[in-house]
Write a structure and sequence with these properties.
By secondary structure, the chain is α/β, with parallel strands linked by helices. It has six helices and nine strands, in the order ααββαβαβαββαβββ. Bound molecules: S-adenosylmethionine.
């Protein structure tokens, strides 16, 4: 089935109409085949503006949130980007069309393998996926020009701040288990950071040493 018309409609209604203006992000979202990142039975819903289940009680984020978080990262083509929470691989796929290297960490092995398979099938080869507790960041690959966290954290883990370049941007949902505020933090100098609240959001929890415990938020 050809989903390109549905994809363009999704971008017009849920991305552009809601205020996303970055032309590169708009064109990448018109290009990346989101339906491949959800299971076959849900492919008909892939171009609605909803988060959808991807197994293991996790979700692929809604298109508007993917676009808004990506825009907040203010990416340059040669940036190295860390994503925490690979999930389906869709956000990583969007990032991979905008920058040279995407480093993505996922704690659930089956999701990391599934994302790898999908990304390989469409030859998106500049996404490096690592299975581990992403609440620690990815020290071996740091520093990063941008870090995007796609799970809700109780507070901002210090590791993320330490792993940013000067000028680096961190976009992260912070709050409780039911709702969070999407924050953008910029490392303006070695020990100086600016912080702003972007919008209210609702993510599954960041589970790990510097996130929530597995028992609950
Ligand atoms: N970015 C994903 C996408 O495009 O499909 C959506 C991510 S989903 C909302 C959140 C993901 O974060 C889940 O796959 C979950 O397993 C993962 N996660 C939660 N805590 C984590 C941690 N400490 N390290 C790595 N991944 C984590």
């Amino acid at each position: 089935m050809d989903y390109s018309i549905a994809r363009r409609r999704m971008v017009a209604q849920h991305v552009v109409a809601r205020g996303i203006t970055d032309k590169k992000i708009i064109s990448v979202m018109e290009e990346v085949p989101r339906h491949l990142f959800v299971e076959e039975a849900l492919q008909g819903q892939a171009y609605t503006d909803y988060a959808l289940p991807i197994g293991e009680k996790q979700t692929i984020s809604q298109p508007f949130i993917v676009a808004a978080m990506t825009e907040a990262l203010t990416l340059q083509q040669d940036d190295r980007v860390l994503e925490v929470g690979t999930g389906s691989g869709y956000q990583a796929a969007i990032l991979s069309r905008l920058v040279s290297h995407v480093f993505s960490v996922e704690r659930i092995v089956s999701l990391a393998r599934r994302a790898r398979r999908i990304l390989d099938s469409i030859h998106y080869s500049n996404v490096h996926i690592h299975v581990s507790d992403g609440s620690n960041g990815w020290a071996e690959q740091a520093p990063f020009d941008a870090i995007i966290v796609t799970a809700g954290a109780p507070e901002v883990p210090q590791n993320y701040l330490d792993q940013l370049t000067i000028g680096g941007r961190l976009v992260i949902p912070v709050g409780n288990g039911n709702s969070q505020v999407l924050k953008r933090i910029i490392r303006t100098a070695d020990q100086t950071f600016s912080e702003e609240d972007l919008l209210d959001c609702r993510f599954v929890p960041l589970i790990g040493e510097h996130g929530w415990s597995e028992k609950g938020c």
